[in-house]
């Protein structure tokens, strides 16, 4: 090993000496640049881009508050009080009883969401934080609806790391499919650049959560007789029912015909038959996060509905 390293490093040094004069000439002649190639459509952010990206702000507020509170026991009002823009504080958010590994992961997720809000503010501006219901009771209701009966005792996401990560399974995935859905509709190059960057991190978060749950797939979630894998399947099925647009969401273990290339039961990532991420429209997302199956009827995480032109438009009674 050392011999190989020594040989390769002396080769490298000889190579560098040979090349250096020529390289320096080339670099100074061309000036390295880090700017992207100028895009063919010369619009940074279009008016419709603003609406689409602002819609995502609703989800980013939800994620930021859930992760900040869960990991640290306080939220945006303390961490970045300018970002909520005067919107009301979330209801029922609390510090979760997390082990160190989970708390470290969730702390990072939390600050990533704060960064996302700042990036969205710089590109499209923020509206006030909508009222968010992050109470144990709201999560308990979602898990009851997913299970098809009332869990006893009620599901409490703040109880322990496993329950918190199961509750987290409910959230970044909606951001992911929402960004995939918004992508083909964006026009401006700044909008597209931001969306790709946000999508990358949202899907990374979803992957971390799903891998964590996959490692524990067969474990029963105490004190229930339901395994981690069953919970993920039930939550995914609930979201498919609420959104009403077919299967766009799958648990961490699936029948092979729903796995990658129709072959795997392991479903660490949720994707279509080409293993391409599913996409959802704002209306589909609202039906799920309102928990009402109706984008005109607020509830669930957003007792008074989302903010911004798209969500407000669905709430506007004079439109239907
Ligand atoms: C490289 O950058 C320098 C300093 O900005 C500038 O004077 C020079 O013209 C540039 N050269 C090329 C080839 O663009
Ligand atoms: C949004 O960004 C602007 C700068 O473009 C800044 O002045 C403003 O304070 C930011 N707003 C929030 C809520 O962070
Ligand atoms: C968890 O982290 C805290 C503070 O960083 C430390 O005091 C404690 O020993 C850690 N616990 C475990 C089980 O590693
Ligand atoms: C939060 O959700 C719980 C469970 O659905 C509900 O009982 C409570 O009234 C909600 N809070 C608000 C302010 O909507
Ligand atoms: C799990 O518990 C529920 C409620 O107590 C019960 O209806 C169900 O049959 C149980 N399922 C299994 C697999 O034991
Ligand atoms: C997988 O199944 C779907 C239908 O469920 C089908 O459309 C698709 O062609 C199949 N893909 C492969 C690689 O067999
Ligand atoms: C609701 O729709 C009416 C008619 O289109 C419009 O005048 C009003 O500004 C809308 N309100 C909101 C909050 O979007």
Automatic annotation (TrEMBL):
Keywords: Signal
Organism: Sarracenia purpurea subsp. venosa
Pfam families in alphabetical order: Ferritin_2 (PF13668)
Coiled-coil parts of chain: none
Signal peptide: 1-29
Protein name: Desiccation-related protein
Keyword Signal: yes
PANTHER family: DESICCATION-LIKE PROTEIN, OS05G0151100 PROTEIN
